[in-house]
Every structure is written in C-alpha cells, then in structure tokens.
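PT: before anyone asks, these are the final sequences, not the draft ones from last week. 988 residues across everything. Please model them as a single complex and drop the result in this thread when it's through.
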Amino acid sequence: MIISTLKDKIKVLKTSNFDPVSSEVFGKQLKIAMIFVLIVFGILILRLWFLQIVNGSAYRAKSEHNRIRLHVIAPFRGMIFDRKGRVLVDNRPSYDLYVIPEEVQDRPQLLKRLSLFADLDSKHAGRILDKAACGYPFKPVCLKKGISRDELAKIETHSFDLPGVMIKVRPERHYFYEGLGSHVLGYLGEISEDQLRGGQFRDNKSGDLIGKTGVERKWQTLLNGVRGGEQVEVDAVGRRIEVISRRASVSGANICLTIDKDLQMLAEELLHGKHGAIVAMDPSNGEVLALASSPSYDSNLFIQGIDRRTWQNIVSSKDFPLQNRALTGQYPPASIFKIVVALAGLEEGVITPEEEIFCNGTFTLGKQRYRCWKKYGHGKVNLHRALMESCDVYFYNVGRRLGVDKIAEYARRLGLGNKTGINLDHEKGGLIPTSEWKLRRWGVPWQAGETISTSIGQSFVLTTPIQIATLISAVFNGGRIFTPQVTKWVRKTGGKSLFESSPQSPRNAGIRQEYLDLARNALIGAVNQPHGTGSKARIKGLAVAGKTGTAQVVALKKEKEKKSGSEIPWKFRDHAWFVAVAPADTPKIAVAVLIEHGGHGGSAAAPIAKELIKAYLQVPL
Amino acid sequence: MLDRRLIQNFDWVLLLLLLFEAGISILNLYSATYPIRDLGGLEIFTKQIYWFLIGFTVFFLMTTFNYYLLERLAYPLYFFAIALLILVLIVGKVMSGSQRWLSLGPISFQPSELAKIAIVLVLAKFFSERGENREYRLRDLWQPFVLTAIPCFLILKEPDLGTALFLGMISISMILIVKVYWKSLVIFLCSSFLAAPLIWFGLKEYQQKRVLSFLSPGMDPLGAGYHVNQSKIAIGSGQFWGKGFLKGTQTRLHFLPEQHTDFAFSVLAEEWGLIGSAVLLLTYLFIILWGLNIAKSSKDTFGSIVAVGIVTIVFWQVVINVGMVTGLLPVVGIPLLLFSYGGSSLISTMAAMGILMNISMRRFMFQ
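LR: through. Structure below.
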C-alpha cells in the first residue's frame, strides 16, 4: 500500500519536475570539466613517468639497497631531585640483546653460544625467534633486556662469531636509592592500549614506559621529553653507512621535590618492619619534607617489565605495599582530635581556659557510661591540663556542649574531612560525621552518645596522616591551612622554568590567635611537663610540642579487655598516633606519625617523631 | 520492479569498469597483505572480498528504484547524516586520537562517508530547483555554503581535516560546474586566499606538521616525510614493467606504511610498473568521463547534477590519493576509492556508483 502511494507520488514528480536539459551553459561547463579532468590526469601520468621512467633506475637502485631504516632516538626522561638538589631518580644506559632473524645462519649454534656468554634460556629464546620470524624477518628481535656488564663484554668480544646479534643501548630509569620515596616518586609501566588510543600521549607509542603513579604520573608529559629519530642507511651486515636525516630528541624536564632525602630515608628506616605512615611538613608553607608509607616497594622493580609473580605478590599482599597510607589510609584521629574540640569549644564560648571540669574516670550519659583512659580519673582539670594529659572526660563534656555539627564545622575549617589537594594520586578525604550525614547515609538520626565518642576522635571520624599534618601545622602557624606541596619546581634542561611552587595564599581557619596560643602551650606541656602524655618526644634544649593519639580498633573492646599489651593479637591492637612541631615558638617542622596497630601513641609513635625532629633540626646528641 | 526497457538500457560499460576495478583491487590487496599473512593479513584479504560482494549488492539495490525518490529523500538523508556526525562525536570510537567511527555491534563505519553522498544530493536538489540556465552570484550561494559548512565543521571536530577539506572541495566543484558569475568567483578565490592563514592557526599541531613536512620533506624524518620517501622509492623502482606480482621489495620488507590502505597504489606501481599504474588511472579516467557523459545525457537537471557530484567524489579522491603517494600533495590519509582496503568507504562508493547507474539507466525513459 505504501509502495503504491509512493509510486503515485513519483508519477506526479515525473511530470511536474521534468525539464529537459537543453541548456547550452551546462553543456559547456561539462566540457570544461572534462578538459580539466584530462589535464589533471595528464599531470598524474606525467608524475608517474617522471618517477618510474626518468628516475626509475635511480629509485630501483635505491630500493635494491634500501636499507634506510627508521631509528627512534628515545628521549631522556627528566631527572628528579630532592629539595637540596640531590639526585633521586636519573637514567642509566641499559644494554639489550637483539637478534636479526634474517641474518642468523645457524640458529641452534648461535643460541648455544649465546647461552654460554649470557644468562639466556635458549629454548625460550628459540620460541621468541620462531614467533618473530614469520612476520618481519629483518626486524631485530629482543631476546634479553638489561644484560649485565660481564655479559656485554663477552658478547662484544665474540661478536665476530655471533652473526645477526646486536646490542642496543637505551636509557633506563634508575631510582638512585632503592625503595626511597616510592610512594611519592611512583613507578613506570608500559603504556596501555586505552592510553595510546586516548590521544593524551601523542609523544608515546606502544611499548613506551610512562609514569603510572606518583610524581612520575603527575608530571608525565613534562618528564617524558620528545622523541627524536633518524633515517639511517645501513649496509648488508647492518652497519651504519650514513645518517640521512636526523632529529635530536629533547630531554624531559627536571623536577625538584620538596622532599629532604635524608629525612625521607630516616622516616622510612624508622617505619621499617611496621605498618604506618609519616608526614613531615614545613608548617610555614606546606612543603612536604618527608612522606613515607610502610610497607613499601622498590620502583626499580617495574622498569624491566615486572614479572607476573612479583606483581601478583605485590598486588595480592595483605600488606598493600602499593597503597600510600599517608594519603589514602583513613584512621580515627583519636586524641589528636581533642585539639579541634578544644579550639571549637573556645571559639564557641562553651568553655573558658580557666574552667575546671572534674574527672573521676567516667562520664555518664543516660544509662551509658564512658570511661576516661585513666581509670581513677584526673581530678579537676582545666583546658591546659586536659590537652596535656589528654583527659577524655573533659572533652566528653566539651563535645556534649558543642554538639556534633559544631564539632564538624571546626574540623572542616581546620582541614579535616576534605582532600588536602596535594598533587599526588588517589588521596582520600577522610570522614567528618554530621547529624545530616548520618541520616542520609544510614537513615537513622544521630545519637547523643555518638557525639561523646566523636569528641575524642572515635566513632565515625576518619582522617589521613597528611590531613593531620596540615592540622597541626595550622595550630602553629596562626591558623593557616596550606595545600601540601611536593614539587618545588619543574625546569627544562636549559633552565627554562615550567613550574615554580609559588608562595600560596593559604586558607585561614579563622581561629583567634590567643586560643591557638593556649593550644600550643598545652601541646608544649604534653611533651615537656610532668604527667604529659608525649614525654617520649622530649628533646633536651629544644621546645618540642606534641600530642598523642591512640585509635581504638573498635568493636573489639571485649577482646582487648581480657588481655593487655603484647598479649592482644596484632590486628586487634590500637593504632598509635603522634603529632609534633618544633621549635614550638618558631616552627620549622611538623610531623605526623601513624603506626598501625602500634599500641599506645605515646610509646609507639612519639619516639619516631623525636628522631625525625632531632635529625632535621640537627640537635646534637 | 525492473521493466524490460530498464534492462535494455542497462549501462554495461559502467558495470564492466567497476568489475575490472574490483579485480585489480583484490589482486593488489592479496599482494599488499602477503607479508603479514599470518598476522591477520589473510583475514584482511578475505574480508575485502566480502565487502566487494556486499558493495555490488548495494550497487544493484541502488538501481531498483527511480532516482526521483532521492530528490525527495535528499533533505531527510542529509539531516540523518548530520545526526550521525553529531552522534559520532558523542559515542564514537576513539582511534589514534580522533573520533570517526560509529559501532553497530561488530560493524563500524564512518558517518562522514554518508555525508559525502548526502551533500551531493542536497546540492543537486538546490540547484535543480533554481534552474540551470543562470549564473550564480555569491549571495545566491549562501544556502549551499551553510549546507556544506555544517558537516565540514562536525568532521573537523572529530578531527579529520582531510575529509572535511574533501567535502568542501566536492561542493565547490559542483558549484563551479553549475556555473558561477566570474566576478563572484574572483571574490571567492581572493577571500579564501586571505583566509588561509586563519585556517593554518586553527589546525592542530600534528596537522601543521604534516603540511610542513610536505613543503619540506627533510624536516620530519620520522613521520610523513619518511612515508612519502619510501612510497616514492616504491613507485619509482617499479619502472616501466614493474617488479612482478608479489615481488615488490618495498612491500615485502615493510618499508611501505599502511600498504593495504592509504598506500595501496604504491604497491601496485611497484609490482606492475608504469603499465599497471597507468591502466588503473585510465580506468578511473574512464569512469569519470563516463560519469560526465551520463550527466550530460541525463534528461533532467537533478539527475545531471547528482551525476556530476558523484563524478566529483571519484575525481578528487583519486587525485588526492595518487597525488599524496607520489609526493605531489601532503599526506592527508584519504584512501583510494574502490582500491584501498576498507569497508565503509567501499560500500558508500558502490552506493554512489549505483546511483550513477540508476541515472544512466533512466535517461531514455522519457523519449
């Protein structure tokens, strides 16, 4: 039916739109077009004549001796320095063993000889050659990457007996200090299909190594440099005769980090064998001096193409060595959080510095009893003593007066609950609960009891070590919240600057200086006065301020009550926190230490902070 | 559907030219993929044979209806093509940095191919409605200009500079053939000459590099310059008689880049020499002249202009590709139609050829 109507329409069209082409103009135009076509095709044929007949024999000769090969000149990846200009990452020559299948005369013999000179599985090598030979007979096939100096010497000496074998030199990434700063520096890996297709990495091609994490990834495009290349004419045995044209590669830009190599090394040493993280920061500008996470890994492992088993071991390890705990580990801040509650209490006027609250060891809310860590209580405590001796009952009271939403407001103002914005991957934001959040997330209203545990940094509160470092810096720098920096500058080899970390305008937390001073004095007391919880961080002749924290691995209280100390299974032990700043009056370094399942903050984390401060400020022993 | 008169008027010349073309193409593709037989080459070869079978089916399908239908469908088809071009920017497959392909299950195709035919049809409709016995001034041409600019802009966004320019060339050629007032022509040429620097700065860096490497091949020894050099060696070394089937060393030893797609002509020129390449070029020439003849003898303006448009597509693709592989024009990545490997280009070309055949078959209908 449809067809019939369509046919009708066409009939109508046929009669109405029918106008015979009798036009002279159009005919003439077509003639011109024909002539134009003939001329253009004439040109094409002439061009072919010129190439194939006039220059034919020259091109024939060229094709017969065509050994013009395209060699890629890989660019040098930019170097990475520490804040004092010491090399952390550079490039080394790596010698790769290649074979050109077409030029091999007696393969079994060649492989036998090669296995004498180099550590090479001849069966495996044979398989690689089989696979390659069917496709590109003249293309060199890599049998082994990164042969040793000894192997190189032997192969070079016997090169006459090894036809078809060639050695290629290639700059290879080298992390100067094995495993140092791996979480900041990151590692390299082969570019993936998706990344190649994405068009973001125009300068790279398949097989290239690109930064997969850390600084190596964040500055990938600048570090990478621009590949060069040359058209090289080679003779029958593959010797270079002439470089026809050449474009030099451009080295990648160099990067200077804010990290201090010595401090970083010490931090990693102190963390060795433990699980945890350390962040050391300059409180006056947010520059990260050290950022360590343990367990760690060696970035060098990834360079030669990590083998399956090692990768599996790293990825499936329950220790999560790839995880950067300083940025992605989220832990309850525990008593560290009391600093926030104290400042909030003062600012909101629910507490005065002089007011004393009686601590008898417990705090009762309804039927629920909340304990102080000190079984028989602190007696009468004011703000100074409460912070210094970390009295729980005092802060239960302050927290109750403030309410959870006020606490949350100040926590956020002081840099918790949000990503700090450090220029590294996968940073987590932590969690600062509010009553609105609880309702939205869990569908139940906020419980008054939860405010009590929130006010000593437990219940839902989660923070990352880098946030805690920013928080403690703010207390000592007049309430300024800096975005932590790891990169000082990025410069081209010639010296042209591509990035300089400029003094940023920090966000102000809006806390009155007199209150900050109160907190500061209490934290100095915590380390230096009798009964202070952080006495293990005391350094003679230096005003160190600090705060301990002992984060409960919740829900397992009962398990813990039965035993004490080392009797508790490791994974049920508390996380130990310690934050410290020194010198307290003119702060140069702020440290946040977290030891997973370390036990008590004052005993497990404070000594580590002390060592770091001592080393950085070079206090004589 | 086909009555006897139609069969009597069947254009055997065009069909024979196409069959001949298909034969050379398949033969050449066998050689071009021979070195990579075990690495998917054989698959490419057999796939192309299927594409040709589908292509000829499409070709015959396009002859079964009266081409007047196309005049009615011109605008719907045009807007469909525009919609697909927009769609490809949103959900298209990204391959080596540009988004040109739409996937339908296992099949993927380039909407820009459809755009070529659509633009020919709308322009033909526009000019046939205006009548052919007049000279156009620039102000009469704003409509064709907009009709061309929209798909050009969308294709430029993918980005695919070559195809966008190609589309522009098709419509300019069609406008020139329907005759433009000579003063308008001068103004147009001058203004486009002035616009050239603007276009230059609108290009992406790699596109600028390509043009530069064409202007001085030594500058980019790695990229396009190398390809053109190797292509010239391949063509030149073919000399008069060629090196023989499957004996081209440039092809065999992988000196030629993309030897089954953009540089397929170089493979032919190396193995069959001037004789082979001239035969191929003459085949194209015959198709083009035959098409112009169809345009001339068509009994209505629409058919005539459509035929001209289709001829234009063939002409410019051949000239750009052969110009490119012989080092006369920059490397823009336009395949040789009916000859290079590639399904979506082949199908759309065969559809266009089917339309040409349709016009040819029906030119005597109203005598």
